[in-house]
Amino acid sequence: MEIEAEIKEILSGNPGQVLLDLSHMDYIASAGIRILLVVTRSVMKSGGKIAFVSLQPRVRQIFEMGGFLKVFPIYATKEGALASFR
What we know:
alpha/beta, 86 residues, 4 helices, three-stranded parallel beta sheet
């Protein structure tokens, strides 16, 4: 997947903070969730922080049904997500 390669390239720089804005994502399949799980684990394993922001209702529903609202640090706004990094 193209997005997976892009995310891996970003993570290769070992960023301390990662903010993923999902406002333009209106659907996510299991493969996409797997990528987000890998990214989250990778960032946290290296001591970094990650936050997801602006989930569309359908994506939020998918996360909720799968129990991922408890797994991923999700915020309604970028400001809230950035505040979690402090």
